[in-house]
Every structure is written in C-alpha cells, then in structure tokens.
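Hi X.,

You mentioned you wanted examples for the new student's onboarding notes, showing what a folding record looks like when two proteins sit in one file. Here is a clean example. The first protein comes first, with its sequence line followed by its structure tokens.
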Amino acid sequence: MTKRWSDEDIEKTLTKMPAVEDSRSKNDLMEAIEAKSGGQLQMRSSKKKKRAFVVPSIATAAAILLIAILLPSLFNQGLPISSDENAATDDMAVTSDDGDEEMTDNAGNTAEDTPLNEPESEDAGVATDNGDDGEAAIMESLPSAYPVFSVEVITRESDFVVGVSPYIQDSEEVLGDAVLSTFHTNDPTSNGAFAALESVTVDEGEAALMFSEESLVSLTSSEHQIIESFFDEIFTLYGISTYRFETPEGPGIQFGQVGEVIEADVTEENRGYYLAEEEGQTLLLSARAAGADMTGGNGELLDLETLISRMTDEEIEDDFFHPVTDTGLTILSVSMSADEVTLTYEAGPEVTPEDRELFYQAFRYAVNTYGIDELTLIDDESGETIVFTFEGGTMLVEDK
C-alpha cells in the first residue's frame, strides 16, 4: 500500500537529509538540469507560464484598488497623474465602468466647487484690504441720528427764558421723533399737556404737531409765555421755522388765552449762545433768550465770523450770561468755507474736561443756524480734533 505523504512528512524528511553544497551558480545548475531533461523542463516551464498569468492579474487588481483610493485626492490637490496611472485607469475602465463613472463624477464636482468658492474669497479680501472703504459705506447707509435735547426754564426778574443743557443724552433716527421726545421729556405745563402730543412730522423746515385732544386750552399766562419761548428755542435747534397744530377735528388748537392757533412762526432768528448759571448747573443760553445783541452796525444779523468774536468777547458785562471764554479756552483762528467751519483754539492750564465740553457745545449750537455741514475744533497745542456734523440746519449726534 502506497503511503500518502503530507506536507509535514515531506518537510521533516527534507530537514533530516544532509545539506548539499555546490559551488556552481544558479545558471550553471539550470543549464545542467536542462541538458539532462530538456523536454520535461519545457513542460514545467509551460505550466509556470500558465500560473504566472495569475500574478499580473493580482498586481493589476492591486494597482486598480490603489488608484481608486488615490485618484480623488489627486484631483482635489490638483496633482498631475502619470501616464502609467492613466493606463491603469484605462484598465480599470474596462473592468469596472461603474466605478470609473463614479470617480469621474466626484472629480467633476470637485472641479466645479472650486470656482464657486473663489468669489467669496475675493469678497473677503476686499473687506479686509479696504476696511476704511467698507466702514465709510456702512456709515453712509446708516440713518442719521438726531439729538433729544434737555431744557430748563430760567426765571429772570419777571420773565421766563429757556436754557438748553450742553449734554445730549438720547437720540432718535427720525427727526420728528426727536422733536416729539424733546417735548415729552421737557413738558413745562402743570397738567402734562404735551402728553397729548401724538406725533410730529417735519418737512423742509415746517413741523406739524398732532394732538389727540385740546390739551393746551387751559394754560396759565405764565405757561403760555414759557411755551412760546419753548417753541422758539427747540424749533431753532431742529432747523424748524414754521409749525402748525392739528387735532382729530382738523387744523388748529385752542392755545391758552390766545384762542385758536393754526400756524405760527419762530419769532426771530437766533445768533449765538452764551453761558448761564442756574441752580448750580451751567446752561447754554441763546442770544435771543439772553437779550444779547444779534445785529451789526447796519442792522443786519451777525455773520458767523462776527458772531464768534461776540461769543468770546471778554468785555461782556452782564450778571445773567457770560462769554464762552469763561471756560478758559480762547479762539486763535477761524477758517470758513461755504459748508465747513474750522476753529483753532488754545486751552489754559486749569481747563477741565467739563470746560472743554461747554466750549465745544456752545459753538456747535451756535453754527447750527448757519446751515453748515461740519464744524471742526482743533487744539493748537495737542492737535486734538473734534468734528461735529449737521444736516439741513439740524445737528447730528454722531461725532467723527
């Protein structure tokens, strides 16, 4: 009975056999074997060739798998693909058309995504490189903010005058809303008559005041006088020269002892602001309210340059109001154009931040009636610059 040799038996038998030493090279051994059994070797060679066909197939499959893994990343990185890889890709197309189409779609999507992202990068670069331009564009698109003023009634002998606080605490984006808020927060009547003021509409220097009821009919004589000054001072600051009253019944309102009033004008133009003390606080008092001279030798209203000189005149002798130079700041030069005014000043050694603010606001309020667009104040020593902006005879809240 023939014994069946297993791989383990063969390995043990060969291990026990002595090693054969031969000085001949591999080629010499192959030639000797071929000489002894050429035909048999040829047959074995043929068998090997058939088996060798499997090796390239496995290698090709491995190459295809490797390319399938690497190809998308090559497209993403924009790297060139060698001709060998292209050939392997062709082989892959023959064996697996679906896989090729999938990779082509992925590559196409990647290529299409790149141009879509480029404009976003360019926009971001413009915003970064041109930050100032972007900020200017944003500032231009924002609505203007108008101040809400704070006023105080000052008693002067038997008269009542209205002073304005130099400090602006609030603002509104709509001019009419700013006027409305100023009336609501500074109502001088004992019965809260301005609570009935529902809306204010401003158009080209004219204001329409809409009251929900006849709330001004029972004013005292003092309140009537105060409200008239109240209207003059507030409307001047907002560039309003004419105002009219309306109620749900129609135009007009019963205005105290005067009777029905439909429309009225600001009594007279203002020229300049001065300093006045009232109960421990410093207010800005208009030249109109203070009774200061507002005309030149020819009877005409003061021009801006002369007005600035009057406001800083240290020879003013009045117990009620004082020149702006009482703050310790002095005007050195004045430069004017059609829509801009620049004041260069110097400050004394004991000037406080409060003094500076009074000085700035006095001129800010004063030039408001001249229809300019910008007022610039420059400290001659430090170079510090303050710029105030205006629009249509109305000061704006934002400082540059």
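Then the second protein repeats the pattern, sequence line and then tokens:
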Amino acid sequence: MDVIPEFRSRPRHEQLALILASCGVLSLLIIEGSATGWAPTVVATVLTGALCMTALVVLPRRFPLVAGVAVAASFTLTVVTLTLTHRPVLTPGLVEQCALLLIVTRGVRLLSPLRAIALAIPTGLTAGLLPLRLAESEWGLATEFLGYGALFGLTLACLLGAYLRLLDSVRAREREADRTAQRLEYARELHDFVAHHITAIVAQSKAVRFTMAAGQTPTPDELDALLGRIEEAGSQAMDSMRGMVSVLRDPAIPAATRPGDDLSGLRELTGPFEGTGTRVELAVDPRLPGRVLPPGMGGTVQRVVREALTNVRKHAAGATRVTVDVRLHEGPMSDEGRTVDAGDGGSDGTAGSAGRTIGGGDGDGGEVRVTVVDDGRSRNRPGSGSGTGFGLLGLRERVETMGGTLTAGPSPALDGWEVSARLPLPPSFAPGAADTTDTDTTDTGDRHQGEPARPSGPDTADPGDELRPWTP
C-alpha cells in the first residue's frame, strides 16, 4: 500500500509508537465486537472499524475512495444489525464512531468544500445512527446520549477540520513566499555574476570585430592575448554557473561565486575592460582595505561596482573612461541620504543628484560611498525612467537591506552616467580617532611598501589602473 513507504520513512521510535497504537486500536475493536457474542457480527464489527481507521492513514489521493467505502460499510452493518437478534449489549462501537468523526475532520481538511460536505453528511448520519446497533433493551437514555454526543462530535469535527485547513493554507503561503524569495535570490545571483562575465565576452569580441573592420590586423600575440581574456571570462561564467547549480542541488552548500565581505575583489572587476577601448580608474580610500566592515557591506560594494560596469558595457558603447571611487566618510547621514562631513562641504556625492534615488537609509556612524561614472553618451540606461532594469532592481533591494540609498542618473562630471550608492555605518563601525587623514588614494595594487599614498582622482590615477585602448 501507499502507506508503507511513508511508514518506513519515519524514525524508529515513531514506527514503534504507530505499531503499538495500531495494536491497541485493533484490540479495542475486537473487544467491542465480542460484545455481540456471535462470530459473524464480531468479524463484521472488527472489519468495519478497521476500515474506518484505515481511511485516516491512507494517502490524500486515496482518502475519498477509502472513506466512502468505510462509511458505506459501517452504515450497512448498522442496518443489518437491526434485523438480528444478536446485538451488542455494552457498546455499539465507540472506536468506530470516533473514527467516523475523524473521517469528517480529515475530509474538511483535505477536500474541496463541496466534496467535504458530500462526505460529512452521510458520515455524520452514520455516526449518529451507530447507537441503534445496541439491543432494544439498551435503548433509551444510552442511545439518546450517544446520538446527541455524535451530533456534538460532528460539529467539533467540522471545526477542527476547518482549523487544520486554515493552518495548511498559511503554511502553504509561507512556503510559497520562501520559494519566491529564493527564486529572486537566484535570479539576482545569475544576473550579478553570470551576466557580468557574458557581457565581458561580448564586449571583447566586439573589440576584435571593430579592429578588423577598421583594417587593423592584430599580430598573433595580440590576438592570442585577447582570445585568452575571452576564454578567461567564459571560464568565470562557467564557474559561476557551477556555483549556482551546487546551491540549487544542496542549499547547505554556500555559493562559491558570492563576493566576500571585504574589498579585495574590486580590482578583479575592472579586468574584463582591458582591451575594450575603455579606461578604468579605480580609487579606494586607504582606510577601507584594513577596516572591518559590517557583515554584507563589502559584498554590496562589489555588487554595485559590478552592476555599474556591466551596464557600461551594455548601454554605453561610446564610453572611453570609467571612474570607480570608493570612499569612507564620517558624520551622520541626513534625511536625503547625504553625509554631513566636515571638510567635505557636500561636494562629494552631489554628482548625479538629478538622477533617480532608489531606497533610503539612516545611520550615525558615517557611510561608505561608492560612485561609478562613465563618459558614455547613451541615455537609454536602466534606472533612467521607470526603473525596469532587473539588475538595478535587485541592487536596490540589496542596498536597502543595508539601510542605504542608490542613485542612478546623468553625471555632470563626465557628461555621462553615474551610479552612486551610500551605505551607512553603524556607530560601532564608525571611523575612529586614529583615522585622522581624509586623503583618498588610488589603489594601484603594486605600490611598494613604504611608498607614500597618492591622492585619488581621475587625473592622478596610477597608470597601472588604466586599461588603455588596444591597438595593434
């Protein structure tokens, strides 16, 4: 039967408890059946009672059929018993009567309203007529008491079934909400990582085509280097896909493609731009690399940069310059999401204020500002109007969970496009007194130890950070 696999899947102690309970119920059925003193009625009483109990444990898809057969058998036995001289003396079958009421409960819980009503009416009638199996000498107060008890029990059974049905509905909605949230998480993961690498492949492939179309034939070494970068981007896309598949197969396995909680991966994000004709300048506040950030903030910073660079490839074909600036600012955030920073004068972060601000946050321990600006002339950017870009939509949700704001819009600085995020720091992570300098430096990645930090900015960036246009 279908109940066997379900039984085997349960723990040992539950299996033992079910076996003992079944033996106890079967013993009660035999005791009640033996009250008639006649073998045929004993067997019939045990069989109908066992059939009613079986309807309570079968799988839901088999329940309507088994329940209908059990109710019909019980009603038939009651009618036949009225014509016999050997009738129960002490009990008409209380175990069977309780099982019939529980059938009503399960029917209300599992079946549609119409089918539940169609099952509850004959089942309640059968349970109410069950006391008529008693000998006529026992009729009177006993049958009246059992009859009213069955009616009251039928009401309780219907209410219990409706309550369990409501609980099942609430649990189903919660599970669906969890699945929806999980699907959105997977969609964001796919967009953040796989789409980023695929876009890099497309951009670098276009660079080869444009170079060939211009009549410039690359040397074998140059062509091999460019194809190697395409191959690397493809390998990274495959690794991202494998990481997502591993998460889908086993939720206990963390995605290998998730960014870390530090800023060590920022330089790797600018690598795919090499050879595409776009110069990338990366500036990181020198106080950030060695600072402990709140959980998730480092990954959010990397996602902002990744999404902005991906949109540059997709929507700013004419962009020749991209600046990535990550800074640490002291002071509380205002209601507009700006930081009141002594010495800042409010000049930083005002670029792109004409754009669309997404989300909002509050904090009194300073903030981390991430700004990505390009000089592309394309205005068909996600976030410029209704905000239908799936990448920025998911990014907005991540920034909002950190209590920050996300701004996307035209940039007056480079006459292009700017994506800016502001992530507030809690007081426990605020810049301490030891951080007295407010000088930003360009992260070069190969600066010698002890070399003084260079000021940041597009005109002072280290040449090692610039991915120059590829020419043969």
